[in-house]
């Protein structure tokens, strides 16, 4: 007996969190592997959520606004490039 999927819907079963933004970012392979290994050791989860949490902790630890951090990074990159 074959299944009838004619009334099936495409897309995510669980709608994404509206506070999350989809982006494309390139990270070093060893960084990704580190977070994937943490997920594997924990028995499952989402490595992207771990990266998000690590970024959030970094921001809190440095007690600066995101704008200040970004300005500093941009200044440093411009200084190295020019």
UniProtKB/TrEMBL annotation:
<dbReference type="Pfam" id="PF14384">
    <property type="entry name" value="BrnA_antitoxin"/>
</dbReference>
<dbReference type="InterPro" id="IPR025528">
    <property type="entry name" value="BrnA_antitoxin"/>
</dbReference>
<protein>
    <recommendedName>
        <fullName>CopG family transcriptional regulator</fullName>
    </recommendedName>
</protein>
